[in-house]
Amino acid sequence: MTSPVFLIGARGCGKTTVGAALAQALGYEFRDTDHHLQQVTGKTVADIVAAEGWEGFRRRESASLMAVSAPQTVIATGGGMVLAERNRRFMREQGAVIWLQANAAVLATRLSAYPQSAQRPTLTGRPITEEMSEVLHQREALYRDAAHHIIDAMQAPERVAAQILTALARDDGRKGVSLTG
Ligand SMILES: Nc1ncnc2c1ncn2[C@@H]1O[C@H](COP(=O)(O)OP(=O)(O)OP(=O)(O)O)[C@@H](O)[C@H]1O
Ligand SMILES: O=C(O)C1=C[C@@H](O)[C@@H](O)[C@H](O)C1
Ligand SMILES: [Mg+2]
After folding, report:
1. Do 154 and 14 contact (CB within 8 A), yes or no?
2. Kind of enzyme, top EC level (predicted)?
3. Any idea which ligand is nearest the CA of 134?
4. Which terminus of the chain is more solvent-facing, meaning fewer CB atoms within 10 Å of its CB: N or C?
5. Which atom of ligand 1 is nearest to the CA of 153?
6. Model confidence over 67-126: pLDDT tens digits?
7. Class of the CATH-defined domain 5-175
8. Which pTM was predicted?
């Protein structure tokens, strides 16, 4: 397998955390669309949203997705990457798409412990548990639509990474190629 691996899912599901470990295990590059956007603009998500609105941010994150996608790369995407149909189609066509699934209570607990509010400005203006419930309600069908594999992200990061490796190896087995070849 050489095609990119895209990690999708809500804020706090572990795309950045698990993505780095997964890339290391595969010997792949690791890219993160939120980090890329911050590097090229020199601005945080909150800065971009304040200057250009969420619409401007969504346009820029779609461009980031195209910019970082490459063979032998694990890509942690922004939580809202799936909102655009074009992004969902692009990821499905270009590589393997993995949804890291977690419930609102777990996500809210993680995000409360480590808010990073410059990178995660409020999406709804509501308290965090309510916000995550609302966001999941709006997006679950989109994550499901985009994903080739759904992984339980409410386990230790190493377990999550191991289960993704198993799913990718199974894909390769079906195609008759080895994971590293
Ligand atoms: N499997 C896990 N178990 C426990 N804590 C986790 C797990 N995965 C991530 N975390 C913790 O949750 C927080 C959010 O993780 P991370 O930044 O990787 O999420 P993300 O999906 O990249 O979020 P965002 O969409 O906002 O970029 C971090 O503090 C991280 O240490
Ligand atoms: O879920 C979302 O809409 C977001 C998630 C983060 O990764 C960032 O991309 C940004 O804060 C928006
Ligand atoms: Mg992240």
Report:
1. no
2. transferase
3. 2
4. C
5. 1
6. 999 999 999 999 999 999 999 999 999 999 999 999 999 999 999 999 999 999 999 999
7. alpha beta
8. 0.96
